[in-house]
Amino acid sequence: MQLQLQNIVPTPLKDKLLQRHSDVWNKQLQLNNAEYIKIKAPSGTGKTTLVHILYKLRKDYDGNVLLDDKNLATLNADELALLRQQNISIIFQDLRLFPNLTARENIELNRVLQQPLYESNMTDEMAALLGIMHILHQKASMCSYGEQQRVAIIRALMQPFKWLIMDEPFSHLDKHNINKASALIDAECKKRNAGFLLTDLEDDEHFNYTRLLNL
Ligand SMILES: Nc1ncnc2c1ncn2[C@@H]1O[C@H](COP(=O)(O)OP(=O)(O)OP(=O)(O)O)[C@@H](O)[C@H]1O
């Protein structure tokens, strides 16, 4: 699936954007199938805003987002649900786990709401890989933020997608866990021939990015 950003300018950022260069805002940008895109930008420059625009959580912007030539703004509720079930999976910066559900229930709830891609035992495989088997039975609110981040990563990987969108997904993980998580994400994207867009504050070498864009 190809994503096209055509002169996107978020309304709250309009004035700020006139004062600096960006590879993304107010540009014609084509993100091709299976690309690995890194968006690097300082705090407050709009990373989360961009992620929310692409997931159609906000509409306060000028310009157009096209998904294989279909304008995101014109999708009806059913088409949007299908897009999120089949084509775009996301790891929010604030994770958005249900605090009163266990880590496993958070993952499972999302899995069964999609056309299940994997059996539930895949949760255990991924959890073992990321070192969180022992907290799967715990309420999400009782897990550390780094544990919750790994739950959110697994939840996103248990569904089908053509694009994986990740908003500072490793902010609370140590190097060892980042290496494990990035290897798993890379393998899952390759399996699906999917691309991803990752935002972060700094440079990193977690993936072989096809493009590095400044916001
Ligand atoms: N709905 C809104 N109304 C007014 N201003 C907003 C709105 N949403 C975001 N902003 C402003 O837009 C700017 C970008 O916010 P955003 O959360 O996208 O930044 P970010 O790059 O993700 O930051 P961080 O790295 O700190 O998470 C901020 O200055 C924020 O205050």
Describe this structure in words.
With 215 residues, this protein is an alpha/beta fold. It has a single domain (3-214), classed as Rossmann fold, CATH 3.40.50.300. Helices cover 34% and strands 21% of the residues. It is built from seven helices and nine strands. A five-stranded parallel sheet has the order 6-7-8-3-9, sandwiched between helices. A hairpin with a 2-residue loop joins strand 4 and strand 5. Helix 4 packs parallel to helix 6 (145-157). It is globular and about 50 Å long. It starts with a strand and ends with a strand. The mean pLDDT is 96. The structure holds adenosine-5'-triphosphate. Adenosine-5'-triphosphate binds at residues 12-13, 41, 43-49, 93, 201. Residues 12-13, 41, 43-49, 93, 201 line the site of adenosine-5'-triphosphate (ATP). It holds the Pfam family ABC_tran. This is Putative ABC transport system ATP-binding protein. Residues 3-215 form the ABC transporter domain. InterPro entries: ABC_transporter-like_ATP-bd (IPR003439), ABC_transporter-like_CS (IPR017871), P-loop_NTPase (IPR027417). One of its GO terms (molecular function) is ATP binding.
Features:
215 residues, five-stranded parallel β-sheet, single chain, 34% helix, Rossmann fold, alpha/beta, 7 helices, four-stranded antiparallel β-sheet, binds adenosine-5'-triphosphate
Topology of this protein?
Elements: E1 3-10, H1 14-17, E2 28-31, E3 36-40, H2 47-54, E4 61-67, E5 70-71, H3 77-87, E6 88-91, H4 103-113, H5 121-129, H6 145-157, E7 163-167, H7 175-192, E8 195-200, E9 211-214
Parallel strand pairs: 3-8, 3-9, 6-7, 7-8
Antiparallel strand pairs: 1-2, 1-4, 4-5
Helix pairs in contact: 4-6
The chain binds adenosine-5'-triphosphate.
